[in-house]
Amino acid sequence: MDREKVRVLLEAVAGGAVTPEQALARLRALPVDDLGFARVDLHRSLRHGVPEAVFCEGKTPGQVVAIVRRLAESHDNVLATRAGPDVVTALRESGLPCRVHEDARLVVVRPAPTDAVGLIVVVSAGTADLPVAEEAAVTAEAMGNAVERLFDCGVAGLHRLVPHLDRLNEANAIIAVAGMEGALPSVLGGLVDRPVIAVPTSVGYGASFGGVAALLAMLNSCAPGVSVVNIDNGYGAAAQASQINKLASKLR
């Protein structure tokens, strides 16, 4: 149940087309549906504006399909993140309308167009960071944001980033995705007056410790306005950027 459907239902009650008892019957399943192995949050979009996402790693394909199917009964643009080949196959064979984003390791179930607002810019340091950057970009788009991508703009070649400074300063939020030494968010934080959401990735040689080096570098950034999410967490960065972008868009 999302905000628009609740609003329409309440208007129907106010107009006399639906009785309070009928409305109560439609709402009685909220806010949680217990599937036995998962308690599906059907109230998430009312609280946050977007439905619950499904993190696929650690779940069987059957469990993923069951959770997604329940969410898709009431929501568009349901996200299945970290979807491996077995999960992708199961979702494709489920009969649910799906859009697979292989680079992002993500599936959008019941994909539907949104009224894209504001601007979020996703900047990645290197091509190897693209899966995490794409997860952030696709997630932000599914949440109803206008998104632009700037890939392979790491600190080893700042001349690749500088030509885009004007556009970066037009964004309401910037997602900076980087592995190795994780310096890109600090550079961006020192160049623009926009909030920068730093995403460390697990890309790098041995001493990067699977992204820990980039995480610590981002947490210790001396540039103002930089926040940090977990290693490889493109989804979390997009969720934060979406909240910032939509609030800023309302204020303008």
> Tell me, what is the CATH class of the largest domain?
Alpha Beta
Gyration radius, rounded: 20 Å
Low-confidence blocks of residues:
none
Q: At the third CATH level, what is the topology name of the largest domain?
A: Rossmann fold
Q: Can you tell me the CATH architecture of the largest domain?
A: 3-Layer(aba) Sandwich
Mean pLDDT, to the nearest integer, reads 88
Oligomeric state of the chains in view: single chain
Inertia-based shape: globular
User: Which sequence of SSEs, written as H and E, runs from N to C?
Assistant: HHEEHEHEHEEEHEHEHEHEH
Class from helix and strand fractions: alpha/beta
Strand content: 15-25%
Query: What is the total number of structural domains?
Result: 3
End-to-end separation in angstroms reads 29 Å
How many H/I helices? 10
Strand order of the largest sheet: 8-7-9-10-11
Folded structure, characterized:
By secondary structure, this protein is of the alpha/beta class. It has three domains: 1-30; 32-109, no CATH class; 117-251, Rossmann fold (3-Layer(aba) Sandwich). It is 39% helix and 19% strand. Strands 8-7-9-10-11 form a five-stranded parallel β-sheet, with helices on both faces. Strands 3-4-6-5 form a four-stranded mixed β-sheet, sandwiched between helices. Strands 1-2 form a two-stranded antiparallel ribbon.
